[in-house]
Amino acid sequence: MNVTEMCAARREELLGMWVERFISSYPLQSAGFMRTSTDPFANPVGQTTRASLGVLFDAVIGLDASPRQVKAALDDLIRLRAVQDFTPSQAVGPLFLLKDILRTALLDPDSAEPKGRMGQSGREELPRARPSAGEILDGCFEAEARLDSLALLALDLYAADRERIFRMRVDEVKRAQSSLLRWAQRQGLSPEGSGNSCSGEGNA
Amino acid sequence: MPKMPTPAELLAATPAFPAKGWMDVKSEIRPGNYCYPAKPDTLLGLGFKRAHAWAPEDQDWNLPANWEDIMYNALKERLDKHRSLKVFMDVCVRCGACADKCHFFLGTNDPKNMPVLRAELLRSVYRKDFTLAGRLLGKVAGARRLDAGIIKEWYSYFYQCSECRRCSLYCPYGIDTAELTVLVREMLLELGLASNWIMDPVSNCNRTGNHLGIQPHAMKEIVEFLCDDIETITGIRIDPPFNEKGHEILFITPSGDYFADPGIYTFMGYLMLFHELGLDYTLSTYASEGGNFGSFVSFDVAKKLNAKMYAEAERLGSKWILGGECGHMWRVVNQYMATYNGPTPPNLEQPVSPITGTVFKNAAATKMVHIAEFTADLIHHDKLNLRPERNNHIITTWHDSCNPARGMGLLEEPRAVLRAVCNNFVEMPEHTIREETFCCGSGSGLNTEEIMDIRMRGGFPRANALRYVADKHNVNWMACVCALDRAALPPLTEYWVPEVTVSGLHELVANALVMKGEIPRTMDMRQEDLPFPDPEPEEPETQEPEEIGTGAATEPKSEEDA
Ligand code: SF4
Ligand code: SF4
Questions:
Q1: Chain B closest CA to A202's CA: distance in Å?
Q2: CATH topology of domain B205-380
Q3: Over the stretch A5-45, which tens digit does the pLDDT of each residue have?
Q4: Closest Cα to residue A7, out of A70, A77, A98?
Q5: How far apart are CA B374 and CA B371, in angstroms?
Q6: Which of these, B133, B303, B342, B448, could form a disulfide with B197 (CB 3.0-4.6 Å)?
Q7: Are the beta carbons of B46 and B305 closer than 8 angstroms?
Q8: Is residue A203 part of a domain?
Q9: Which of A125-139, B53-67, B83-97, B425-439 comes out lowest in average pLDDT?
Q10: Which domain holds residue A14?
């Protein structure tokens, strides 16, 4: 058994802990709702977070993952957090907290051993051979390096999302008076000099 | 060297929300989470005497010296005037049915955006001053004394409610948070606190007739440009009547349709439809704003702006009023107009479609018909020559705008129109459409650019459902009948679902409408090339519409509920 398999065997538990770190960035009173409601349309933030982190988790622990899918999942997550009143570090930061979770799970001798699971036959399966400490460390570093790549990509996505917001704010003002701007141009006037009250900037 | 914090410590050091009770959490006023204040001159011009200069980020909002008395009296007056307010204050059992129904809560996960807590922001103050238990027991009974921090909290959270009324749909008592929001905003106005994005248009509508304050001659010229565009696209010249007396119908639409992209394409659609029908109508520059910006903040202001419609219909001697694609305009018409400004002027009659003879019984009280009803009736009676294949590159879904859907039950008519003009129609998932529709996140005057982040998270539940049908069914279009939506949804889709274009209903009608004497269409209303253009003119006139674009329509036909 290698590190990827060790993490995969405990996927639900470890992923759950990571999701929890994200959910705890929301107010206490709402976190309960976000945990319990599983309808993607009734609890869009909780479910988007969960779905995205599931894909990212698999990529970090080294399971086969399509780069396109991984990027899309990260994109969904960051796009959401980029407009949720977080500082940049709060928005992206909980990604890093998976490091702690994996380290604890892999290196702590008490928690490292996956519980003997019940096989199909109902009998307890024998735990397979555990990798050496060196192999675990190597596996851990590899997973962390993958997580670092995702975090760097997250920075780019976050910045692009913020830029998009600012561009949208400008575009909206233009769209809101598109025919008026055209009229002003035909009159040879700049919009400001049209003599009309354009003071309701940005109104639609 | 001081120890560097770990990432976990760093993130935990700045929690978004502490684990305190909601009353102890003071709202922060930061850039991006408040609407810019209305200018004092604007408010003074509208008769709000306590208008003053203030800046939301300042500690001191320059409230009048006796502001506490003003608020006490304002609340008392409203409790006496609106029986509903008293009921809403007393009857909530905190069952929580509304709590997770607000799109602002779902997008922000901020508990103060739960409708029950939003109402509690006012209710707690009401308890303190107007209930015995609250007076005696204070905080234990959920009561608190009004202070300047609460005024700030109100300005923050009652401007994070889009008055969409989704919550009231689920409340067993029908508590209408939207109405509470209007009342609190009304009370804030008494202190001279209001949003510029709302009050500037209110002032413009009041003085000039439209929300940008455009003078009549300029407005007419702008419409002429749009008629130039129609001529380019169809080869037909339209010269719509303005302010003319003696026409059967007065047509009033939100003024965003005259000025804003993409509303202008829908406006062009109205003009083409009326021309094709030979409708006896006039536009008006005086009543040129069907939308009612006053309704966002004050029942009195709403009434005043609304009165223009009947005044103009009386002056022009029209028989009935046809209204354009708008949202809150129709809540005002449907719920308040008869009480505000009824009875209707004597020249107004029960609306009858001159084309089909249909009597619009639903409009008996107000004499106003929504254009989606009007067009659906035309289509039902097969009065329009339509070529929906021109829209074959579009796979559209339908956004039920809150006010027409929940405020007047306009659910089937726009869908009937959409199905007739577009071959590919996919519904978004249940519980996100019809009465349960999710708001665009920018309604009730929140459509202002400085709170774009709030709007993006408030609109996330809508966008999330849209995203689902875009991924699953290749939806690339979202149509709606609301001018604010036409302004608010383009940035929303640009952020969350960039492949989706937003339009009004009558833009798609105009694409499909075959007009007598038109040139073969090669462009849509936005003057973009039609992927499925009309056949060349030498083709026989009698060609069956089914043959046009055959084989090119690769997408599924009208797919119901994903
Ligand atoms: S009216 Fe709409 S925005 Fe306001 S609290 Fe209710 S659900 Fe939220
Ligand atoms: S659903 Fe109605 S009664 Fe229940 S908590 Fe909400 S407002 Fe109160």
A1: 6
A2: Glutathione S-transferase Yfyf (Class Pi); Chain A, domain 2 (1.20.1050)
A3: 999 999 999 999 999 989 888 876 777 777 778 888 999 99
A4: A98
A5: 5
A6: B448
A7: no
A8: no
A9: A125-139
A10: 3-115+131-165
